Amino acid sequence: MKIAFITNSYKSPTELWLWRQVDYMRMYIGYIGVLESSQRKLEEGINIIGLSEESSATYLNSFFLLRKLEKLEMEFGIDVYYIHYLTNFFLIKDFFLYGTRKVFVHCHGFDLTFDRKFERDSTSNFHSEEYLEFCKSLPTSVKYIADSVHAKMLLVNRGLSANHIKVVHFGVPIEGLSPYKSFLPVKILFLGRLVDFKGPDLTIRAFEIACERGMNAELLIVGDGPLLITCQLLKSRLNFFDRVKFLGVLPYDVAKNVREKCHIFTAHNIKGSLTNQEEAYGVSIVEAMGAGLPVVTGKSGGVKETVLHERTGFLFNPGDIEAHANYLLKLSENHELRERMSREALRHVEANFTMEIERNVLYELFGLDRPIGNHRESAIIVGPYRYHNFGDDVIGAIIAQYLKSRNYNVCIPSFRKENAVWLGIEYCDNLDFLIRKAKLLVIGGGGLLGDAGIVPDDYYRELALKAALKGQFEGVRVAVTGIGAGPLIQSSSRKLALDIANLADKIGVRDTDSKNFLQTLGVEKRKLIEGADLALLTPYYLNFSRSSLSKIAIQFDISHYEDAKVNNPNVNDIFTSVCSYARRNFSNVVLVSNGNFESEVSKFSTECDTLSYYDLEKFLTYFSGVRAVFTSHLHLAIVAYSLQIPCFSIYVREKTKRFYEQIGHPERAVDLKIASISDFERLIEQAGNASWSNKDGRRLRTLQKRASKLLSIL
């Protein structure tokens, strides 16, 4: 299933909830459509597409926009439309008049304030007459999402049946800070837009009164907005002006650090005297409670649903500045009260407002595979991770991130510590101990049930079998996934593979040949699930920054090809040709190795940039910026393809040939046993001129859906 996200803009600093939704639903996102004029771009594996050539409503309702939406629906295979803000749905409503498209409209606050005015001109209506008329008879074929009961009632009062509205609270991270902080002065935080319904000016006035009554505190104001100048002027007139600090708009991580140093969160939520708007939900308030901060604010809008009076903070009647000041003073002077409320706030958010809860509700609403509930069971991934090969590590990382999304605590024994820290999984080598406390044992990674490298080696198969036997003894479920199987030269290897398969309840393989091979060994057909290589899901599960190098990546390490040299006397000449090309084009080439060693080509092409694999995040960040890849390593090609980078190979193993057949480009791969210099010259020339096509995109999405099947068996 593929979802089209439609919103105003992407990665606005005030819309962290959107970033979080994208993060946990990225596997299902076809594209993010923004209702502004912008170039199409690929960011962290997701297509961000500007839907408008102009900003006018005339264009947005035009035939051209509707045609664009139709083309995107066909290109990305969209099944579900998830539209943020009722105002955005209004602009593109004509696209949904006919047919049976599955549409969800997430309503927030300003879009439901039907008498809303402009901040700087409170005499002018914010919404058009056409919009207000449209909202009197909203289409019932659409499912509406409200971020609070308050927001839901605004729709109900407009005439929409409550049966058509689902309340979904935005989830927040649980920062889990220590609720007891004894240092002085007490730090009080206001974080949010400086708008009338959040009351930053009223907050400053309440703070001043509390200080006059003896409060030893600082007020930190993080944010920007139309009331900034008003608030700055107000500060300049205070007797305690030096205690009020404006920090401006801060990136999330910086704001999080500020929040960690604070004791109390405050605002003065109220129906805006200028805009008529109320706080529909208040993400920053819930974030504060998730960080162990008690909240003091006005009893207005959706805030009444999130803050528990006298348990997680204090709520006062909006406009009562005296009460606001008294509660600030009371909390600032009473460490024990702050400690109790902080603990209660953390428990309240953990029980009601986590990202897992939000995700589960939306998954069920959209008909997606629902993650496991909110418990934290353990899962172990066993495979070829001790040698730190790029391809195997990528697959292990993807399995780990999928299991994390299903609410497991995950560990990959012997996985490099830097990678474990990046993924947010446990780092541990004691496999026996881990199995005893696990609920799930996953055996996966590359060609675990096939011969790899120059000399067949059963080390990892023996390790996997021991783990599976231990898991069976401890009552742990065993699954095998993300693997290639065959050929296996030694009879001992075939027996190990069959024994592992017999202990697993499901086995996910990446292609038909692997499935057929395991069946010839005697593996039951009912256990076998055929999909595609998990590395195709790299941009969905692994979060890294994309660089823009625009170079050709070359990986061709000749010492790996001893068996091929026996059959092809041209191997050394091909290597020489690769080195010569790299030297001539050093400014446009980066030499890559898939392990923690220098590219062998770099010894003869010393002016080229090099990239060796050690750390997944750093490697992927650099690698993602190349414009084409020439490689003999299967998973460098697959990861490149997943990032929409054209790839080309002179290969050693048949599995690489099968991959190029899967992606519809068999002409881009040549067997090293029969390759010649002219084959390399042809491939590298094509790499220099290659581009990503719509056909490539459709094929990639098909393969990614197949690859997802190998995760769903877990």
From TrEMBL:
Entry-linked Pfam families: Glycos_transf_1 (PF00534), PS_pyruv_trans (PF04230)
Q: Where is the Polysaccharide pyruvyl transferase domain?
A: 389-651
Q: What sequence ranges are listed for the domain Glycosyl transferase family? A: 187-345
Reading the lineage from the top rank, the first entry is Bacteria
The family database entries (InterPro entries) matched by this protein are listed as:
Glyco_trans_1 (IPR001296), Polysacch_pyruvyl_Trfase (IPR007345)
**Which positions make up the signal peptide?**
none
PANTHER family, sorted:
GLYCOSYLTRANSFERASE
Q: What is this protein called?
A: Glycosyltransferase involved in cell wall biosynthesis
